[in-house]
Amino acid sequence: MQTNPNLDELFPTAIVNINSKLYRASEAKISIFDRGFLYGDSIYETFPVRERIPLFLEDHIKRLLNSAELLAMPLVFMPEDIIKEMQKTIKASTVDDQYLRIIITRGESSIGLTPNSDLQNNLVIISKDLPENPSWMYEKGVSLFVSSVQRNDPKATDPNAKSGNYLNNVMAHIEAKKKNFYDAVMVNKEGHVAEGTTFNVWMIKDGVIKTPPQSAGLLMGITRSKVIEVIQNSTDFQFVEENFTAQEFENADEAFITSSLRSVVPISHINNSELTNGFGPMTAKINEGYLKLVQNYLRENTL
Protein backbone atom coordinates (compact mmCIF):
# COMPACT_ATOMS: atom_id res chain seq x y z
CA MET A 1 0.00 0.00 0.00
CA GLN A 2 1.36 3.38 -1.02
CA THR A 3 1.66 6.03 1.62
CA ASN A 4 0.99 9.70 1.02
CA PRO A 5 4.09 11.82 0.41
CA ASN A 6 5.41 13.87 3.28
CA LEU A 7 3.80 17.20 2.43
CA ASP A 8 6.28 19.19 4.50
CA GLU A 9 9.10 17.67 2.45
CA LEU A 10 7.18 18.17 -0.80
CA PHE A 11 6.31 21.79 0.06
CA PRO A 12 8.99 22.86 2.57
CA THR A 13 8.25 26.60 2.27
CA ALA A 14 4.46 26.33 2.05
CA ILE A 15 2.20 28.44 4.26
CA VAL A 16 -1.51 27.67 4.10
CA ASN A 17 -4.06 30.16 5.39
CA ILE A 18 -7.47 28.60 6.06
CA ASN A 19 -10.03 31.12 7.26
CA SER A 20 -7.31 33.31 8.80
CA LYS A 21 -5.37 30.53 10.55
CA LEU A 22 -1.90 29.65 9.28
CA TYR A 23 -0.68 26.06 8.85
CA ARG A 24 2.24 24.09 7.49
CA ALA A 25 1.45 21.95 4.45
CA SER A 26 0.97 18.74 6.49
CA GLU A 27 -1.37 20.46 8.95
CA ALA A 28 -3.71 22.11 6.43
CA LYS A 29 -7.11 20.38 6.39
CA ILE A 30 -10.57 21.13 5.05
CA SER A 31 -13.81 19.18 5.49
CA ILE A 32 -14.64 16.39 3.05
CA PHE A 33 -18.17 17.87 3.04
CA ASP A 34 -16.91 21.10 1.54
CA ARG A 35 -18.57 21.65 -1.84
CA GLY A 36 -15.22 22.50 -3.37
CA PHE A 37 -14.16 18.92 -2.69
CA LEU A 38 -17.51 17.32 -3.50
CA TYR A 39 -18.37 19.21 -6.70
CA GLY A 40 -15.47 21.47 -7.63
CA ASP A 41 -17.78 24.25 -6.40
CA SER A 42 -15.06 26.81 -5.84
CA ILE A 43 -13.27 29.71 -7.48
CA TYR A 44 -9.59 30.52 -7.48
CA GLU A 45 -6.75 32.71 -8.70
CA THR A 46 -3.04 31.98 -9.02
CA PHE A 47 -0.32 34.55 -9.54
CA PRO A 48 3.33 35.25 -8.80
CA VAL A 49 4.58 37.33 -5.91
CA ARG A 50 7.88 39.10 -6.66
CA GLU A 51 9.86 40.51 -3.74
CA ARG A 52 6.65 40.09 -1.70
CA ILE A 53 4.65 42.19 -4.19
CA PRO A 54 1.67 40.33 -5.74
CA LEU A 55 1.76 40.97 -9.48
CA PHE A 56 -1.34 42.72 -10.89
CA LEU A 57 -3.24 42.07 -7.67
CA GLU A 58 -6.18 44.35 -8.46
CA ASP A 59 -6.88 42.51 -11.72
CA HIS A 60 -6.83 39.11 -10.01
CA ILE A 61 -9.17 40.21 -7.21
CA LYS A 62 -11.56 41.70 -9.77
CA ARG A 63 -11.58 38.44 -11.74
CA LEU A 64 -12.08 36.41 -8.55
CA LEU A 65 -15.18 38.45 -7.71
CA ASN A 66 -16.43 38.10 -11.28
CA SER A 67 -16.03 34.32 -11.04
CA ALA A 68 -18.18 34.31 -7.89
CA GLU A 69 -20.86 36.33 -9.67
CA LEU A 70 -20.86 34.04 -12.72
CA LEU A 71 -21.31 30.99 -10.47
CA ALA A 72 -23.98 32.68 -8.31
CA MET A 73 -21.71 32.19 -5.28
CA PRO A 74 -22.45 34.62 -2.43
CA LEU A 75 -19.26 35.74 -0.71
CA VAL A 76 -18.98 36.46 3.00
CA PHE A 77 -15.50 37.90 2.39
CA MET A 78 -15.08 41.47 1.20
CA PRO A 79 -12.17 42.22 -1.18
CA GLU A 80 -10.30 43.96 1.64
CA ASP A 81 -10.69 40.81 3.80
CA ILE A 82 -9.16 38.66 1.07
CA ILE A 83 -6.27 41.09 0.54
CA LYS A 84 -5.62 41.32 4.29
CA GLU A 85 -5.38 37.53 4.61
CA MET A 86 -3.26 37.34 1.50
CA GLN A 87 -0.84 39.91 2.94
CA LYS A 88 -0.73 38.00 6.21
CA THR A 89 0.20 34.82 4.34
CA ILE A 90 2.86 36.49 2.18
CA LYS A 91 4.49 38.04 5.25
CA ALA A 92 4.55 34.70 7.06
CA SER A 93 6.56 33.07 4.28
CA THR A 94 10.33 32.70 4.49
CA VAL A 95 10.78 33.42 0.77
CA ASP A 96 10.38 36.67 -1.16
CA ASP A 97 9.32 35.23 -4.54
CA GLN A 98 6.18 33.18 -4.05
CA TYR A 99 3.53 31.22 -5.88
CA LEU A 100 0.18 32.34 -4.46
CA ARG A 101 -3.16 30.60 -4.87
CA ILE A 102 -6.43 32.02 -3.50
CA ILE A 103 -9.35 29.58 -3.28
CA ILE A 104 -12.87 30.34 -2.12
CA THR A 105 -15.33 27.46 -1.83
CA ARG A 106 -19.08 27.72 -1.50
CA GLY A 107 -18.70 26.04 1.88
CA GLU A 108 -19.76 22.88 3.68
CA SER A 109 -23.25 21.47 3.19
CA SER A 110 -25.32 18.33 3.08
CA ILE A 111 -24.60 16.08 0.09
CA GLY A 112 -26.78 17.26 -2.78
CA LEU A 113 -26.69 19.80 -5.55
CA THR A 114 -28.81 22.38 -3.75
CA PRO A 115 -26.57 24.52 -1.50
CA ASN A 116 -27.72 25.12 2.07
CA SER A 117 -29.09 28.62 2.51
CA ASP A 118 -26.72 29.37 5.40
CA LEU A 119 -23.47 28.32 3.75
CA GLN A 120 -20.27 29.99 4.90
CA ASN A 121 -17.43 30.22 2.38
CA ASN A 122 -14.06 28.72 3.13
CA LEU A 123 -11.13 30.94 2.19
CA VAL A 124 -7.87 29.12 1.51
CA ILE A 125 -4.65 30.88 0.55
CA ILE A 126 -1.59 28.84 -0.38
CA SER A 127 1.87 30.35 -0.55
CA LYS A 128 4.97 28.43 -1.57
CA ASP A 129 8.30 29.18 -3.18
CA LEU A 130 8.19 30.28 -6.82
CA PRO A 131 10.75 28.31 -8.82
CA GLU A 132 12.07 29.90 -11.98
CA ASN A 133 10.67 28.44 -15.17
CA PRO A 134 13.25 26.40 -17.10
CA SER A 135 15.31 28.54 -19.47
CA TRP A 136 14.69 26.19 -22.41
CA MET A 137 11.04 27.30 -22.52
CA TYR A 138 12.13 30.78 -23.57
CA GLU A 139 15.24 29.79 -25.53
CA LYS A 140 13.62 27.04 -27.63
CA GLY A 141 9.85 27.40 -27.10
CA VAL A 142 7.21 24.86 -26.15
CA SER A 143 5.44 22.23 -28.23
CA LEU A 144 1.63 22.15 -28.26
CA PHE A 145 -0.80 19.45 -29.32
CA VAL A 146 -4.27 20.35 -30.60
CA SER A 147 -6.35 18.17 -28.31
CA SER A 148 -9.36 16.06 -29.24
CA VAL A 149 -10.88 17.25 -25.94
CA GLN A 150 -13.25 20.08 -26.84
CA ARG A 151 -13.31 23.31 -24.88
CA ASN A 152 -16.38 23.73 -22.69
CA ASP A 153 -19.13 25.65 -24.45
CA PRO A 154 -19.83 29.10 -22.93
CA LYS A 155 -23.47 28.03 -22.64
CA ALA A 156 -22.39 25.33 -20.18
CA THR A 157 -20.07 26.73 -17.49
CA ASP A 158 -18.84 30.17 -18.52
CA PRO A 159 -15.08 29.86 -19.18
CA ASN A 160 -14.61 33.23 -17.48
CA ALA A 161 -15.58 31.63 -14.17
CA LYS A 162 -12.18 30.42 -12.96
CA SER A 163 -13.56 27.51 -11.01
CA GLY A 164 -12.21 24.42 -9.28
CA ASN A 165 -13.84 22.19 -11.90
CA TYR A 166 -10.88 21.70 -14.24
CA LEU A 167 -11.39 18.16 -15.56
CA ASN A 168 -11.86 19.33 -19.15
CA ASN A 169 -8.39 20.91 -19.07
CA VAL A 170 -6.85 18.02 -17.13
CA MET A 171 -7.94 15.49 -19.77
CA ALA A 172 -6.55 17.64 -22.59
CA HIS A 173 -3.25 18.03 -20.73
CA ILE A 174 -2.98 14.27 -20.14
CA GLU A 175 -3.63 13.59 -23.81
CA ALA A 176 -0.84 15.99 -24.86
CA LYS A 177 1.62 14.51 -22.36
CA LYS A 178 0.93 10.98 -23.63
CA LYS A 179 1.97 12.20 -27.07
CA ASN A 180 5.14 13.82 -25.66
CA PHE A 181 4.04 17.43 -26.10
CA TYR A 182 4.55 20.17 -23.52
CA ASP A 183 0.82 20.90 -23.29
CA ALA A 184 -2.47 21.08 -25.18
CA VAL A 185 -4.58 23.59 -27.07
CA MET A 186 -8.35 23.14 -27.17
CA VAL A 187 -10.77 24.09 -29.93
CA ASN A 188 -14.47 24.87 -29.56
CA LYS A 189 -17.41 23.16 -31.26
CA GLU A 190 -17.02 25.44 -34.30
CA GLY A 191 -13.45 24.20 -34.76
CA HIS A 192 -11.87 27.49 -33.71
CA VAL A 193 -8.92 27.61 -31.34
CA ALA A 194 -10.05 28.72 -27.87
CA GLU A 195 -7.11 28.47 -25.46
CA GLY A 196 -4.59 26.19 -23.84
CA THR A 197 -5.17 24.19 -20.68
CA THR A 198 -3.79 26.96 -18.44
CA PHE A 199 -2.85 29.71 -20.87
CA ASN A 200 -4.03 31.93 -23.69
CA VAL A 201 -2.68 31.48 -27.22
CA TRP A 202 -1.53 33.90 -29.91
CA MET A 203 -0.43 33.65 -33.53
CA ILE A 204 1.34 36.03 -35.90
CA LYS A 205 0.82 35.79 -39.66
CA ASP A 206 1.98 38.28 -42.29
CA GLY A 207 2.74 40.83 -39.59
CA VAL A 208 -0.69 40.63 -37.93
CA ILE A 209 -1.00 39.49 -34.30
CA LYS A 210 -4.13 37.45 -33.57
CA THR A 211 -5.64 36.02 -30.41
CA PRO A 212 -9.07 34.36 -30.08
CA PRO A 213 -11.94 36.61 -28.96
CA GLN A 214 -13.89 35.98 -25.75
CA SER A 215 -16.72 34.44 -27.80
CA ALA A 216 -14.40 31.54 -28.72
CA GLY A 217 -14.84 30.25 -25.17
CA LEU A 218 -11.76 31.31 -23.25
CA LEU A 219 -10.77 32.64 -19.87
CA MET A 220 -9.82 36.30 -20.22
CA GLY A 221 -6.29 36.00 -18.89
CA ILE A 222 -4.67 38.76 -16.88
CA THR A 223 -1.41 38.44 -18.82
CA ARG A 224 -3.48 38.38 -22.03
CA SER A 225 -4.99 41.75 -21.13
CA LYS A 226 -1.55 43.20 -20.30
CA VAL A 227 -0.08 42.00 -23.59
CA ILE A 228 -3.00 43.57 -25.46
CA GLU A 229 -2.20 46.79 -23.59
CA VAL A 230 1.43 46.58 -24.72
CA ILE A 231 0.41 45.93 -28.33
CA GLN A 232 -2.19 48.70 -28.46
CA ASN A 233 0.23 51.23 -26.96
CA SER A 234 2.71 50.63 -29.77
CA THR A 235 2.61 51.74 -33.39
CA ASP A 236 4.76 48.76 -34.38
CA PHE A 237 1.97 46.19 -34.33
CA GLN A 238 -1.21 45.25 -36.18
CA PHE A 239 -3.60 43.38 -33.90
CA VAL A 240 -7.01 41.70 -34.07
CA GLU A 241 -9.06 39.53 -31.74
CA GLU A 242 -10.23 37.04 -34.33
CA ASN A 243 -11.18 33.39 -34.63
CA PHE A 244 -8.73 31.04 -36.32
CA THR A 245 -8.65 27.30 -36.94
CA ALA A 246 -6.07 24.77 -35.78
CA GLN A 247 -4.79 24.60 -39.37
CA GLU A 248 -4.28 28.37 -39.46
CA PHE A 249 -2.55 28.14 -36.09
CA GLU A 250 -0.15 25.50 -37.43
CA ASN A 251 0.69 27.77 -40.38
CA ALA A 252 1.59 30.79 -38.23
CA ASP A 253 4.84 32.65 -38.78
CA GLU A 254 5.24 32.97 -35.01
CA ALA A 255 3.09 31.93 -32.05
CA PHE A 256 3.26 32.22 -28.30
CA ILE A 257 1.38 31.56 -25.08
CA THR A 258 0.70 33.85 -22.12
CA SER A 259 -0.07 33.08 -18.48
CA SER A 260 0.50 34.69 -15.10
CA LEU A 261 3.11 32.17 -13.99
CA ARG A 262 4.94 31.84 -17.33
CA SER A 263 4.56 35.35 -18.82
CA VAL A 264 5.24 35.23 -22.59
CA VAL A 265 6.55 31.91 -23.96
CA PRO A 266 7.25 31.18 -27.64
CA ILE A 267 5.73 28.13 -29.34
CA SER A 268 8.21 25.93 -31.21
CA HIS A 269 5.80 23.29 -32.57
CA ILE A 270 2.05 22.95 -33.09
CA ASN A 271 1.31 19.30 -33.73
CA ASN A 272 3.92 18.35 -36.34
CA SER A 273 4.44 21.88 -37.66
CA GLU A 274 7.69 23.54 -36.67
CA LEU A 275 7.63 27.29 -36.05
CA THR A 276 10.49 29.53 -34.91
CA ASN A 277 13.19 28.22 -32.60
CA GLY A 278 12.67 30.42 -29.54
CA PHE A 279 11.41 33.99 -29.76
CA GLY A 280 10.57 35.23 -33.22
CA PRO A 281 11.27 38.94 -33.88
CA MET A 282 7.74 40.19 -33.20
CA THR A 283 7.20 37.92 -30.20
CA ALA A 284 10.50 39.18 -28.77
CA LYS A 285 9.30 42.80 -29.04
CA ILE A 286 6.01 41.92 -27.35
CA ASN A 287 7.85 40.11 -24.57
CA GLU A 288 10.16 43.09 -24.06
CA GLY A 289 7.16 45.40 -23.69
CA TYR A 290 5.43 43.05 -21.26
CA LEU A 291 8.52 42.72 -19.04
CA LYS A 292 8.75 46.53 -18.88
CA LEU A 293 5.11 46.65 -17.79
CA VAL A 294 5.85 44.14 -15.02
CA GLN A 295 8.88 46.10 -13.82
CA ASN A 296 6.90 49.35 -13.76
CA TYR A 297 4.17 47.67 -11.70
CA LEU A 298 6.63 46.26 -9.18
CA ARG A 299 8.37 49.61 -8.86
CA GLU A 300 5.11 51.49 -8.27
CA ASN A 301 3.52 49.06 -5.80
CA THR A 302 4.38 47.82 -2.34
CA LEU A 303 2.74 45.22 -0.13
Structure description:
The protein has helices at residues 7-10, 35-39, 57-70, 79-92, 135-139, 167-178, 222-232, 246-250, 281-300, and strands at residues 15-18, 21-23, 42-50, 53-54, 98-105, 122-129, 142-146, 183-187, 193-196, 200-205, 208-211, 238-241, 254-259, 263-270, 273-274. With 303 residues, it is of the alpha+beta class. The strands form two sheets. Strands 7, 8, 9, 10, 11, 12, 13, 14 and 15 form a nine-stranded mixed β-sheet that branches. Strands 2-1-6-5-3-4 form a six-stranded antiparallel β-sheet. Helix 7 (222-232) crosses helix 9 (281-300). The longest helix is centred in the last third of the chain and has 20 residues, at 281-300. The N and C termini lie far apart (45 Å). The model has no long low-confidence stretch (mean pLDDT 95).
**Over the alpha carbons, how many angstroms does the gyration radius reach?**
20 Å
Strand percentage:
25-35%
Q: Total number of β-strand segments?
A: 15
Percent of residues in helices comes to 25-40%
Instruction: Name the overall outline.
Output: globular
The string of secondary-structure elements, in order, is HEEHEEHHEEHEHEEEEHEHEEEH
